[in-house]
Amino acid sequence: MAPDIVIVGQGICGSLLSWSLIQKGLSVKVYDVGSSESATAAASGIINPITGKRFVKSWMADELLPAAEKMYAAIAAEIGATFYEQMSIYKLPESVKEQNDLCARAMDPSYEPYLHSADIHYLDKNKIKNDFGSFAIGGAGKMDTGLFLRTYREFLKQKDLLVEECYSEDEALASGSRVIFCNGFRAAQTGLFTKLPWQIVKGEYLLVRIRDFYSDRIISGDTTISPTAEKDVYYAGATYQWHYETEAPTEQYKNEVIDSLNKMLEVPFEVLHHGAGVRPSAKYRRPFIGFHPSHTQIGIFNGMGTKGISLGPYFSAHFADHIADGKALMAEVDVKNILK
């Protein structure tokens, strides 16, 4: 018997959408051959509510972050793995101006859940350069993306919901099920959704060993340094490459991350691994959700770029409500409004 929904791809989008649809009582099959260098597998897994050079609150942060914490806790309880934790980010301003800008944000009541005070925290200057101190950003968190993908994949296998094969658009057009493509940047290259306003970005990162460092927080400066599950091992990066010739890691951007670490750290570090991933971002920084206006059985859940960890839970539930209950999609994410 054909499932209600076929999902193509088991990155963050495919995994969370399958979970949300299962909670709605719909039958699903997830098609994914597996890739250690997928965008989710290569991601830092950080949720950061205050971003950019102007230190602005992320779009829909007040709704997205509670939804993420709730869904990740529910999935963790089901699959028996703790893959997400709240973790403060310590932002290092690079000048007096940035220091003042962060102080001003902290005085704004709408930022209170994330910047609790205008206090400047000075970190150990024997470990890290922070001449202008740091500001603690609350409401942040970190997912172990590799652990999440592996354990959720096993959950799908145990439920006989995973098919480790490719699934083409031609198969989707002939299917008796509704088919939703969650296949990352591949959806921008061929098929029905190439005309969406994609902005594909490659990122490269390092795993480094730093002994006796900050294992309880994320530090954001010239690059971002975040702890991993392994003692003394940290994720550093990632870079942004709008134009690239290869999906593989490159020496140029490895050196870029190393240079950033040298600007920040007062202690030695050892490079353990150099990886890369391609992010399926949207030009207007809004995810792509919904069904094609002409081929109404084929949909997409994609375009979340670096913010898939925060956007995914809220919008997978939103899409599941649309599919199962007929609730309207938000106009600014509904692909019918772009492709019409």
Q: What is the 3D form?
A: globular
User: Which CATH top level class of the largest domain fits?
Assistant: Alpha Beta
- Under the CATH scheme, which architecture of the largest domain would be assigned? 3-Layer(aba) Sandwich
Portion of residues in helices? Answer: 25-40%
CATH topology heading of the largest domain: Rossmann fold
In short:
The chain is built from eight helices and 18 strands.
Please give a structural write-up.
- With 340 residues, the chain is an alpha/beta fold.
- The protein folds into 3 domains: 5-75 and 142-196 and 285-339, 3-Layer(aba) Sandwich (Rossmann fold), CATH 3.40.50; 89-138, no CATH class; 199-282, 2-Layer Sandwich (D-Amino Acid Oxidase, Chain A, domain 2), CATH 3.30.9.
- It is 29% helix and 23% strand.
- The protein contains 8 helices and 18 strands.
- It has helices at residues 12-23, 61-79, 96-106, 145-158, 169-174, 251-264, 308-325, 336-339; strands at residues 5-8, 28-31, 46-47, 50-51, 56-57, 84-86, 89-91, 135-137, 141-143, 162-163, 178-181, 198-209, 218-220, 224-227, 233-237, 270-282, 288-291, 298-302.
- Strands 8-7-13-14-15-12-16 form a 7-stranded mixed sheet, with helices on one face. It has a 6-stranded mixed sheet with strand order 10-2-1-11-18-17.
- A hairpin with a 6-residue loop joins strand 17 (288-291) and strand 18 (298-302).
- The chain is globular, with a radius of gyration of 20 Å.
- The mean pLDDT is 94.
